[in-house]
Amino acid sequence: MYTSGKYSSRGPALIPRMKTKHRIYYITLFSVVLLGLIATGMFQFWPHSIESTADWTLDKRSVHDAPLIRLPVSSPIPERGDLSCRMHTCFDVYRCGYNPKNRIKVYIYPLQRFVDELGVPISSTGLSREYNDLLSAISDSDFYTDDITRACLFIPSIDVLNQNSLRIRETAQALAMLPRWDKGMNHLLFNMLPGGPPDYNTALDVPRDRALLAGGGFSTWTYRQGYDVSIPVYSPLSADVEQPEKQPGPRRYFILSSQTAIHREYRAELERLKEENGEALLLLDKCSNLSQGAASARKRCYKGQVYDYPQILQESSFCVVLRGARLGQAALSDVLQAGCVPVILADSYILPFSEVLDWKRASVVIPEEKLSEMYTILKSIPHRQVEEMQRQAHWFWEAYFSSMKAIGLTTLQIINDRIYPYAARTYEQWNNPPVVKWSSVNSPLFLPLIPPRAPGFTAVVLTYDRVESLFRVITEISKVPSLAKLLVVWNNQNKSPPEESLWPKIGVPLKVVRTKENKLSNRFFPYDEIETEAVLAIDDDIIMLTSDELQFGYEYFNYLYTYKMPGDIKNWVDAHMNCEDIAMNFLVANITGKAPIKVTPRKKFKCPECTAIDGLSLDQTHMVERSECINKFASVFGTMPLKVVEHRADPVLYKDDFPEKLKSFPNIGSL
């Protein structure tokens, strides 16, 4: 028996002697395993920031095993990008279809290595670890399908997160070669670092046709509202640095600025604020006395004193997030993680996920020109509100910013909510931490949980016998670009509608529905002829509205009005022939908890053809009854759901001195 001194007490009875050749074999095997573990550990903890990796978890294979695709010089290049794209013009919702779970299906293209004719790759870094994490998270989610024929949304395996690593023309050619590209229809690209020197465009410069863009630096000029998704710039510190959660409350510093490479004008203004307010403001910068590297990136300095970053962020109530060369900054994610309220100074910046997140609850947005007033503005915020904002900021990070998985799945959920709006998450679900309980009204689940059968909107015109005025209304409404169908509700049982040949000739289907009873509620009945999600309900004497004004704002809740109106409100409206518009506003305000959106300037009611005989509103008792019905409806609802609103939505460039042809809605009217 062979033993070493180490095992002299118990070893001989337990360990048999190995033959030399076996011992060498096991030592070699152990060494290989040990080296493998060391290499794996080094890879896991190696500093990274949107950089290349050799792992591909989606297909369980190496990047190097992916097929090589050569791009001919003559390969087609997509169009640069259609700024007018919206979900109803550049996205085919019918590919999504109906499914019981109201969830889109997402297909990820297999990994390919694209090179030009000389064999040069289209990207200098290949597949980044961040993009690999993103695709892996999607492939593990309920959104994913490996059946391309079932897919509603397509995601390329071409990594465009960082534009700096891309060859623009060749990347565009690679996108155009995807088998289901179809001018980018129903394709989604993820980009966090757009543009490049010297001008740094705020959206990806790669030509992409009609593809949706989840972008990390959108401005109001490049963001397509309701189509693109504004996403955060991921901070790798989220994964590398663990910070204990700090409870909301007063912090050591009132304001902290920790960004490096701030524009000199902003730096000078912050220095002036520091002089005025002393220790309340901590102004940090890059440490000049430290060697460059991963360690120095996590340090900040002020007059020779070194601070750990991002840990120092937890020591301040407010943290400044200034625009840099790009609008989107990874610092925003770091600040949120620390539970520090971000003070955002980046004019025209579209905040991440602002389509669903209420940033007023978690941040303070200040115009860049008011940087000098920042201290005064922040001091005016009550302490209790600051604590709520600190709590909300950290929860935003935890739920939506903390990982590439969180960013990717949040993006898909937003797109899913657009396609299945009646199954969408509510404002409370998006913005309230799970521990907070709210007693808000539930969504109307009885509504059809399917995409609309047709795009655009249906105009429902209620009429009795004012034919001349009716025809004028029809003619004006028919000019609205989004009109899909016009439905005339003929409320006169004693008189037939005009002959077909007398009606205005318009470019959309026109249908006349004859009612059995003369009721005002007939205007809100969910007629089978209505195939669109949006409906414009209008009277036959509303001739003062322009087609631009109608295009700019519309939507009513017909199913709710007809089937779910509480109490005897609908019967009261029909009996008094009054207040159906007020009843609808009560209903919508009660369901949504929100005020109406006032669009376009106020206009005076004009109806030259109307007389005291045929105009309901000209009766002297009409306005008296409208006051009575408000009290009546409030008693039925048990509360006053109507909200006061001081906001009015006007189109971009509405009052600006620009040529009319540059305005989307030139015929809005004057104040």
From TrEMBL:
It is found in: Endoplasmic reticulum membrane. The chain crosses the membrane at residues 24-46. One of its GO terms (cellular component) is endoplasmic reticulum membrane. Residues 256-283 form a coiled coil. GO terms for molecular function: glycosyltransferase activity. Its main location: endoplasmic reticulum. Residues 555-654 form the Glycosyl transferase domain. Gene3D superfamilies: Spore Coat Polysaccharide Biosynthesis Protein SpsA, Chain A. Residues 101-381 form the Exostosin GT47 domain. The keyword Transmembrane helix applies. SUPFAM superfamilies: Nucleotide-diphospho-sugar transferases. It is a single-pass type II membrane protein. Keywords: Coiled coil, Disulfide bond, Endoplasmic reticulum, Membrane, Transferase, Transmembrane, Transmembrane helix. GO terms for biological process: heparan sulfate proteoglycan biosynthetic process. Pfam families: Exostosin_GT47 (PF03016), Glyco_transf_64 (PF09258). Belongs to the glycosyltransferase 47 family. This is Exostosin glycosyltransferase 2.
